[in-house]
Amino acid sequence: MSTGHKILLVLHIASVVVAFAPASAHPLLSRQYGEDGPQALQRFSQLAARNGQRVYAPALLLAGLFGLAMVIESDFIDFGQTWVWLAVVVWIALRVIVTGVILPGERKLGAGEASAGKRVELGGMVSTVLFIVMLYLMIWQPGT
What we know:
The structure is a single chain. By secondary structure, the chain is an all-alpha fold. It has one domain (3-140). It is built from four helices and no strands. It is elongated, with a radius of gyration of 17 Å. The two termini are 17 Å apart.
């Protein structure tokens, strides 16, 4: 494995960690803030939406781009491998869920629309399942 590939791998993994940090932290924080009342939950949702747009969504984009760069740079990975193109499909689905469901839902929660909480929760569950599928693809690499 070349030095360039190792650098891309580190950047890929680091951006994945940043992108998925809220998947584990936000449900817990939402419950804790919710116990402090609707205003506290609304403020948390405002911050979550802002961070999602500025930090987590860009990190998810970078995770995919670094992954694609690893495929392009690699001598042993190519787009013809089943796990690679499936990973691209899952990454696109994750981007759609995050930018089309979770972030708008968090913005609505931040604006005081409590009913958006179910949308955010569902989006979080779907993205978590997709993340687990992605881990499976990356670790077991079916179709190689």
